[in-house]
Design brief:
By secondary structure, this protein is mainly alpha-helical. Helices cover about 45% and strands about 5% of the residues.
Length: about 150
């Protein structure tokens, strides 16, 4: 029952804080020093992406900012390498945790517009897609992780 859920419970929607360690920052600098941003080939972009992956550097805001400081566009490098962009953060902030109340409010508003006594599979999937979009989730991401 939703009313029994404590306000201290949070729902994690598969995102983690994206901060870079000193070692990762050094790896980014050392890697990008080998390339000219305006003359980057597909092979160069793939090499950069692979080096970052091996170093445990994940796509995100921190990486994009670091690359930008060094004259590179992270999105352009990723696209050139054929990498899919990371999922959008949840609306309303960069937080990896979304209060259950936010989800309930979103669903309540969405369901007001539908005949809930007779939802077909297409409507359910559309609603699920809207929910994922609202909270910045990829199709294949974990939907809910509940911690108390």
């Amino acid at each position: 029952m939703i009313g029994a859920v404590s306000s201290n419970q949070n729902m994690s929607f598969g995102r983690t804080e994206n901060q870079l360690s000193t070692e990762q920052t050094d790896t980014i600098k050392a890697t990008l020093e080998q390339f000219a941003p305006q003359n980057l080939s597909e092979e160069d972009a793939k090499s950069i992406v692979e080096t970052f992956k091996e170093a445990g550097i994940k796509p995100g805001k921190a990486l994009a900012e670091q690359m930008s400081e060094l004259g590179f566009d992270a999105k352009a490098v990723g696209e050139l390498a054929g990498v899919e962009p990371p999922p959008k953060p949840p609306k309303g902030g960069e937080s990896s945790t979304i209060d259950l109340q936010q989800v309930v409010e979103f669903l309540s508003k969405s369901l007001e517009e539908l005949d809930t006594s007779n939802l077909d599979e297409e409507q359910k999937q559309a609603l699920f897609g809207e929910l994922k979009s609202e909270f910045g989730l990829k199709e294949d991401s974990n939907f809910v992780k509940i911690s108390v």
